[in-house]
Amino acid sequence: MNYQLSEDEHRSMELLRDQLNLISGLLAMAKTDAELSGITSTSLFAFLDERCGDLNRVLKAVSERYSLQFELERDRGTLEYVDWLFALRIARGDILQTPNGAEHRITERLTKAAQIDSDMKRVLDEWLGTLGQLAVQKAQTVADKPLSTKHPVQRRKRNPSVARA
């Protein structure tokens, strides 16, 4: 599962990181000779340093995801309502009511979305499966059409002497 952080949550995490950095810095100065209730400052420093690293990794991932989302939206990678309409028409098999290149554009946008959000990979897989199934159906339809073996009918010239009834 992916979780998005609100701006307030992100700010709270940044403040926590700064507070952990302060405690780590203080413990770094005291680690040579101080003990805290049976816990050495070295072990406490190692613990806090690791938690700070975890927090920094989360913040970095959130920032990168935000940057990619912004880039996706800027590059028009998100599906607009017309893309959804075309996707549904294509899935229904109504290719005549969709413009040329709609399948490709939708596939590109879903691919970009899947790069940003791993959950969108499942949507992309379903889309590609739908396109594959439509291609198979189209190939079967073309293969099932009987080829005409008849020669074109030639018209005979009308005899002008024969009167119409």
Written overview of the protein:
This protein is mostly helical. The chain has two domains: 7-65; 81-143, no CATH class. It is built from five helices and two strands. The protein is rod-shaped.
Task: Please render the helix and strand layout as text.
Elements: H1 7-30, E1 35-36, E2 39-40, H2 41-74, H3 81-92, H4 102-116, H5 120-144
Oligomer: single chain
Main-sheet strand order equals 1-2
What portion of residues is helical?
55-70%
Backbone CA Rg:
33 Å
- The low-confidence runs, each spanning 5 or more residues with pLDDT under 50, are none
> What is the overall pLDDT average?
77
**Total E-strand runs:** 2
Provide the number of structural domains: 2
Could you say which overall geometry the principal axes of the C-alpha atoms support? rod-shaped
Helix-strand pattern, N to C?
HEEHHHH
Strand content: under 5%
Structural class: mainly alpha
Separate helix tally: 5
Task: List the keywords.
165 residues; 2 domains; rod-shaped
Structure in a nutshell:
With 165 residues, this protein is an all-alpha fold. It contains 5 helices and 2 strands; from the N terminus they run H-E-E-H-H-H-H.
